Amino acid sequence: MGKIVGIRFKPGGKIYDFDCGAFVLEAGDPVIVETEKGLGFGTVAVPPRPAEKQDRDKQLKKVFRKATEKDFRQREKNRKLEKRAYGYCLECIKQLGLKMNLFAVESTFDASRLTFFFTADGRVDFRKLVKMLVKKFQVRVEMRQVGIRNQAKMCGGIGRCGRVFCCTSFMEKFEPVSIRMAKDQGLSLNPTKISGQCGRLMCCLTFENQIYQELKATFPKLGKTVRTAEVTGKVIRLNVMHNRIALRVSGGQEVEVTIDEIIG
Hints:
Layout: E1 3-8, E2 15-19, E3 30-35, E4 38-50, E5 63-66, H1 69-96, E6 101-107, E7 113-119, H2 127-137, E8 140-145, H3 148-155, H4 166-169, H5 179-184, H6 191-194, H7 209-216, E9 225-227, E10 232-239, E11 244-249, E12 254-258
Parallel strand pairs: 7-8
Antiparallel strand pairs: 1-2, 1-4, 3-4, 3-5, 6-7, 9-10, 10-11, 11-12
């Protein structure tokens, strides 16, 4: 193995390592690679790098060739097939009365297999549906039920921030998100304000969580009594980003001070 190149099959999707072989590749180059399901159309996401010692034991698939005009035509043909399969599958779902939400269809590069992605509240008996699809398209059919976050990643869209979904544009995998992160960042706990288009807690809560934890470690804990040169009071609120805390002093009044003013 000489060099390893990182290939991505979908925008924002996971990057897979392949044996570059003798090909001279740059980031953005379209390539045809060997996969477990046959040949696949991908894009160079990470330029070739020399294989290191820990890489030599890996059994990597190889880059088959650089993509040609014929490969682009095949990809366009596959997209038309996916569109037809999507429409026909929706008709079958309605006819069979299945409680499932079909949202995407993907074809292998050689069009020998169609994968239908859907969400559902529970298990779905789609055996009749598969038979109808196989009879119609004469290819192997796979039904794949995924979670709502994966649906958002595959379909894409615009978030409340006005930018393309993080999961679609650059995130390779989902990190656990908890309501505790929203509390630590002083955000409103209203579900409509801290949830993404998928209905789950926004992934971006994880991006700043570590820095909030590090900054809060330098602050006195809520409920602790502290004093400054002018007042003594109990900590009732933290403003991590502005390096300030709110104190409740005698008489029930609230006073804001900076961390630098605390003397004990």
